[in-house]
DNA sequence: AAGTTACTAGACCGGTCGTCATAGTTCGCG
DNA sequence: CGCGAACTATGACGACCGGTCTAGTAACTT
């Protein structure tokens, strides 16, 4: 059962990268394969479900990666308010450094491939896992469970929206505004 | 110079609709033309810039339409806090009634055609015009200009993010959470 | 009737995703 | 060790659809 090549992993890697920056429909199989140095036939060997399955798995990986970053940031930082500010700073940096190409790794695909159920589900799970991290951090800081859930939703929505605006405007100001707002909101909640 | 047909307008209309629900790359010219009952050759007569120009103009129309709804809602309602809640309720209804297809008319395209400069600009202008409406309403309610700008950014980001999450999850809860949060935030600011 | 403008049909070529017959590689078992 | 079965990999192929453009028809003007 052990694999002999890393083709499958390489494909997932390049797929995650391309879907992140271009979205689902804008990313062609040829581009994907040539970027990963893989022949066409291999795709349907490793991913019988074709492009759709490849995308769903790649999104799960992207979601997991950011989940880990989130968790680490929230554990390390000095309270959830500060953590979120740090985190947004990190997102802003990534976005600007990529000439405003690398925003949220899920949102582009979540919107442009919303009619594919497997893909939609993969994105929903990614978002859910991120929200859970926020929620845990908030309850950990002493906020009631019910309230923490709502607040985590607001945090995630605001960050996603700010990423969208920043990417569209080629300007990180929306991220900074949202970071400040969220920090104040959270710290106001903690007393 | 006077036109003899309404082909151009019909094309813009169907384009706005399809780009709204499917995004840029997922919408083919054939689908677009057959849906609008328009002949293929006409595209490059009416839109020499091709698909890209058609999209940019359609987005400007979509942006303008929502701009009008926003302005009217904010003028009619009893203060900006209530207005935003009403507005989000309206967005949630539209989204749910369309089986979670009709979210923000710009965001899908803004993300999946971000590398086209004309399209990016059209989206940025749409977002900007919406934000200006919020900003005016907030300053009109007595909030300082500088602060109103930041707050309007947060409002827009939160609403956009909530639409994204709601669409992906097939659940309007994020919209409700954000509506409640924004109302409280704004009304807290007004005293 | 001739000229000008408004519009349209369909051919075009490159690229789309997906399939398949075949080739190469590794392993279990006699 | 040697053989065959199972696993892995390959790229040519095809049916179709993508956006674009040229060559043409229809309508109005003078």
TrEMBL record, chains A, B:
What are the residue boundaries of the HTH tetR-type domain, all occurrences included? 5-65
Query: Mind telling me which Pfam families this protein's record contains?
Result: TetR_C_13_2, TetR_N
Keyword vocabulary terms for this entry: DNA-binding, Transcription, Transcription regulation
Tell me the DNA-binding residue spans.
28-47
* Gene Ontology MF terms in the entry: DNA binding
Name under which the protein is recorded: TetR family transcriptional regulator
Organism, per UniProt? Prauserella flavalba
